User: What shape does this take?
Amino acid sequence: MEKFQKYYLSVLLVILYSSHLSAQVNCTAVEGENCKKACEIFNYWGEFQGFRESQEKLDEAIELCPTFSNVYMEKAVPYLKRGDFETWKQLIDKAVELEPQKHLGYRGWCKYQFLRDYKGAIADIEALEKIYPTGYLGYSANGDCELHIAKAICYSALGQKEKAIKIIEQQISAKDHNIGFFDYYQLGVTYFELGKYDKALENFEKQSKQNDFAENIYYKSKVSKIRNKDYLDLKKLALKSYDEGKTMKDGYTHHFNKVYRAQIEEL
Amino acid sequence: MKNLLFLLSLLPLLSNCQTEKASVSKYPAQVGDILFDKRTDDPNFKRCIPENKYAYQYYNDSKGFQYKGEKLAIIEKLAKTDLTADGKFNGYIVVRFLVNCEGKTDLFRVKQIDSEYHEVNQDNQLKDKLLSFTKSLDAWIPKEIEGKKIDYYQYINYKIVDGKVSEILP
Assistant: This one.
């Protein structure tokens, strides 16, 4: 019995950890009895992500209210996380078709984070900008950054470094912008790639003040090495930070411009 | 806390439903479950958690992708591998598999999708080579959850640009 309890407790912890616990919807505000029921199913079964019963119940919700976009999005999530991108895309496309203003940013972010589909991500984020031409587009699903920054990263990946810099700087200087976890770092690396080391260092220093981590210190060390300055203390510090777990981390994927321990060692 | 206890009480119910409904549902017990297939899988491969029990994913323990030498080791190994193949395919080749509690792998399943996310079979040579390459990876780090050794599902998604691997994901 004790074994049984332990097993289910650990399974539960896993569910609670890995579920993205999507924002609950206020179902009283939903119009129509069937859509209200669908909403309640979504709120309840969304927390059992990936279970057969959850998928079946979400299907029931779709039958009850085929225009309730959140259900398609929720049903799609386990396919995304588990590598069935074809099924994910079919479902998330349906959500976007029904309510683009709500799901375009999320789909765009996922295309970038899970598939490095840079062009696809840019297309979604730029379509969202047409809906919301001013102000924020919202944050990435993992909370790392505002979506303008994500778009800039995609341009950087496609080799359009100047354009990426322009977008990031414009966004960072926006009045109400909340700096993301890695905004200055990504800007710094982009400058570094263009050989503009003063600007790169300036941004790595800003990143250090806001949220320092091994990759950022590694790049500071690289700049010092290029300038024939002492870089070994910084290298040592980068390795120490890495070993202490102060790195760019994500439970699902690897970050853009992630640096691995062996690369720091080789410097 | 109330919600937590309620969810806990519901889990045995979910588990029971899994076995009873297996023959009628269009869904597996868990999205992404891979069941043993004697035509392709190794009968001697050890599953530490039976296939009808809750299946863990690589991201369930917060450590995420766990390979000795990190993903860089896989990138470097791939760079040394002959992946010459005909064709100019653009899209993804996704290999899903199970890492058991000893870090060994089997139950490989491969799927190829184009850049519009539709399943295709354009470049089987490259698909076969990437499947063999994935099978050759032998430094997966076993995982434990709550002190218990587990099996976990992992995938590698090879992004292909003009017939060549441009990135290894996740």
